[in-house]
Amino acid sequence: MIRIAILFNIKLYKILIIFIGVIEILPLCSKCQNVISDINTTYNTSEDNIYMQFDNSMYSTGDTVHFQGFTLTNGLPTISTKNFYVDWFDEKDKLLAHQIYPIVNSVVAGQWVVPNYYEGHGFHIVAYTNEILQNDSSHSFREDIPILGYQIVPQFKFDLFPEGGNLIAGVENRVGYYIEGVHPTEIYLIEGSNDTLKKISTKTDNYGSFVFLPQKNKSYHLSLPMDSSINVELNPVKESGIAMKTDVYVDSITIMLHKTKDLLIKHLFLKGIMRKDTAFQSSFNMEKKDSLRIKINLSDLPSGEMKLCLTDESGEILAFRSVYITGNTNITNPAPIDIVNNSIPNAQAKNLQIIYRDSMPAIISISIRDMAFVTKNRNFMGWLLLGRNIEDSLLQTNKPSTLNAIDNIMLCTPLSFRRKVNTFDSSYFHLSGQVFSKRKLPNEVRLIIRNEGEYNSLKLSLDDLGHFKDSGFIIFDSCYIGLAGGQDDLTFNIDTLLITHGFERSPYIENKIEIFGKNNNIPNKYQRSLNTIKLRAQLNLYKEEKDSLNIRHQMLPNVSVSTRQWRSRADSVKDIYMTESMKRRFDNVGLRVKDIDVDKDPMRYMYNNIVDFLKGKMIDVDIHAHIFYDEMEISYETARMMTSLPTIGFIRIIGIKPQTILIYTAKYTDSNLKERFKHKWGQLILGYNSYIPFGQSSVAKEKSVSDRRKTLFWQPGITLSKDNNIMDIHFDNNALAKKLLVVIEGIKADGTPIHYEKIIETKL
After folding, report:
1. Where are the membrane-spanning stretches (predicted)?
2. How confident is the model at residue 633 (pLDDT cuts 50, 70, 90)?
């Protein structure tokens, strides 16, 4: 029995652990190693963190929202995760769009068009990977974006999080709280029905914590002074167990463990995990002891998230806690980027030069926006390094107040444990299927494929059972497949069982982040926004029980890519011409629609231009009509000058004056290509969403509508390195902006985040 200090050298890190008190040290025996192994399989030790940079911070109806997503796995650029999922919701949590993009070099780029008919004040985004949903759905990226001229009112939420996972009777417990939608200055802790134990000052912060000593056979809840009928119950109090209380400082962590006297346990095992590696592990004797204080020196650790897990000899988890530590690495180093403004003063044409000053390669995205529309705080590092919505400003200082604010956010995170390890996210959407024949199967099959607007022929070998596979053919948007001519004795199916795995619908349609339980104590006036009170985080919920309420988060099913046949020739014509973005924009908008298959109309040769042709069809084109030619907007005057009617394949007229008119040229470069498709027109595979490049508007001309673009320049997926360190940017300013904000975000090859902002004066 001695007073000691022990130095552990585990893997990459050296950690000094000082046990203050009189304890007996238990060696790291084989039983300890087995318990540590059980922790690895029980708790998620491999995780993705993601972040989305947008080209702006607010949008109008009809705008295109451009984004780039960044993914890190255990602090390094992702190489194993393949698919990036983005769900777009309206203010009432109705799913507007579910998108899937391939992750290449740990980044992804995409877009979504705000519907012209959208009447909400904003929209909500949830982004995730399959790894996130399997392991820790609380790390899914979430963002509220307002519509220009409105402000999003956050939904009312009130959640409680006992530190370590449980409330233990007879010992001191710390409880975290999260309040959103209201900002009370204090809340009340109430025992039973009406006995107020204490007032808790919230300082109007969303996150906070308090300490109290719960008793056996007692129930507790918190109430708001603004409305005493709003009650949120705490976890049921456990009669025996261990309570954990952790305090984080600049250079150390102290952990206080309080055990109930009736808990007969001899040995405890403590493990700390950082970026999947074991930062430290220890075992100690708790026989005849009710409390223990542990201090961990952080001087030899990197900055980031550490997961602390406490178990008994059988491997049962007694307490768990995630903490943020400021170690020996600075995650907020200045970005190695400079911007030189080479623009002529007061000119609308702008010329900037980006200079990268680092030997480590990086992938970045650049957004240049009108300063009048900048509203959001920076949270790039918080999401990418910690998987939480923590403002970068909190991570840029080591003040005790900011460390405490971060710790309260880390405390108020639902616990999540691994139930099953799945690997069905290991491949991209590829083309595979099977060919059938009434006769002997050939050695190969010839297909006609339209992918991303282009037609191609594809010849694939068949095995003895007629299976074919092309692992290099990544499917985007709507991919149409038909048998080439001369194969009338063949039929084919797109594979729905082998390697093409995806999701038929978003897992967040019903339950966005967690499985929720309705709180029946909430008054009706709050029910619409308060019907998603989370179940409290209890460690005993993770045992193998059949009760569906014990499932902590939605597990995505293993679903194959769906296929369908075109319903009719009219449907196939529309599908062949229109991209998915235009379908989402103009399909099912509740307006009258008329389709004209121009290339089948013999009367098209009788008219001088498109406008006259439509008048011949009894369609009076309004001078203010919105006209798109191959999905590029053109003026009414330009449409009147278009005389090449034989090259037009398809026209769609939407609504009445002023109409929207979609004009498409014939897509077939091979005059015999149509004839090569078999009857029924083939099949449609729904694959990844395609990335559509950012389109810059021209400078506003004299007497034209004032140019009020909010985003002046956007480009994702830029690779910079020591040998490729200079990039020139040319763009046009809008009509009114006096200041522009340049935002550059990205990651270096070692996972280090890059964030750089600079204000550019445009009016001197």
Report:
1. 12-28
2. confident
* pLDDT of 326 over the 70 cut: yes
Query: Which one, of 55, 54, 60, 66, lies nearest residue 116 by Cα?
Result: 60
Distance separating alpha carbons of residues 363 and 580, to the nearest angstrom: 28
Residues 476/685, Cβ–Cβ less than 8 Å:
no
**Residues in Cβ contact with 329 at an 8 Å cutoff, skipping those fewer than 6 apart:** 302, 303
The identity of residue 624, as a single letter, is H
Question: Does position 464 have pLDDT exceeding 80, yes or no?
Answer: yes
Give the confidence band of 710 by pLDDT, cuts at 50, 70, 90.
Answer: confident
Residue ranges with strand state E in 225-276: 227-233, 237-238, 242-248, 252-259, 267-274
Q: Which two tokens stand for residue 169?
A: 């009777």
Separation of CA 236 from chain center: 33
Q: Which DSSP letter does residue 587 get?
A: T
pLDDT digits (tens, 9 = 90+) for 70-89: 999 888 888 877 788 898 98
DSSP character string of 78-112: -SS--EEEEEEE-TT--EEEEEEEE-BTTEEEEEE
Q: How do strand 753-761 and strand 739-748 relate by DSSP bridges?
A: antiparallel
Helix (H/G/I), strand (E/B), else coil: 382: helix
Cβ-proximal residues to 626 (8 Å cutoff; 6+ apart), any chain? 633, 658, 659, 660, 661
pLDDT of residue 75: 83
Q: Which two tokens stand for residue 632?
A: 């590029």
Asked if residue 661 lies in contact with residue 623, where contact means CB atoms within 8 angstroms, the answer is no
* Nearest residue to 417 (alpha-carbon basis) of 137, 196, 757, 104: 137
User: Using an 8 Å Cβ cutoff, are 202 and 186 in contact?
Assistant: yes
Residue 534, pLDDT above cutoff 50: no
Instruction: Return all residues near 560 (Cβ < 8 A) that are at least 6 apart.
Output: 495, 496, 497, 500, 501, 502
Beta-sheet pairing, 317-325 with 304-311 = antiparallel
- Residues 464-499 as b/e (b if ≥16 CB within 10 A, e otherwise) read eebebbeeebbbbbbbbbbbbeebeebebebbeeeb
Query: Has residue 571 got a pLDDT over 80?
Result: no
3-state secondary structure of 303: coil
Strand partners, 681: none
Dihedral through CA 613, CA 615, CA 617, CA 620, nearest 10? 130
Distance (Å) of CA 512 to CA 87, 141, 154, 509: 10, 11, 15, 6
Instruction: Name the percent of the chain in helix, strand, coil, to the closest 5.
Output: 15, 40, 45
Residues in Cβ contact with 596 at an 8 Å cutoff, skipping those fewer than 6 apart? 617, 650, 651, 652, 653
What pLDDT, on a 0 to 100 scale, did the predictor assign at position 21?
A: 35
Write the single-letter amino acid at 384: L
Residues 330, 675: Cα–Cα separation, whole Å: 64
Q: What whole-number distance in Å separates Cα of residue 668 and Cα of residue 647?
A: 10
pLDDT above 90 (res 549): no
> Are the CB atoms for 109 and 67 separated by under 8 Å?
yes
> Model confidence over 119-164: pLDDT tens digits?
888 999 999 887 787 666 778 899 999 888 777 777 778 888 899 8
Is the model more confident about 375 or about 652? Answer: 652
Of 45-49, 407-411, 431-435, least confident by mean pLDDT is 45-49
Task: Look at the alpha carbons of 555, 560, 566, 571 in this order and tell me if their dihedral is positive or negative.
Answer: positive
Rounded Cα distance between 121 and 148, Å, is 8
pLDDT digits (tens, 9 = 90+) for 265-308: 888 888 888 877 788 788 888 888 888 888 888 888 888 888 88
Domains of the chain, earliest start first: 430-500 (no CATH), 566-665 (2.170.130)
Torsion of the alpha carbons at 165, 169, 170 and 174, rounded to the nearest 10: 30
Q: What is the pLDDT of residue 451?
A: 62
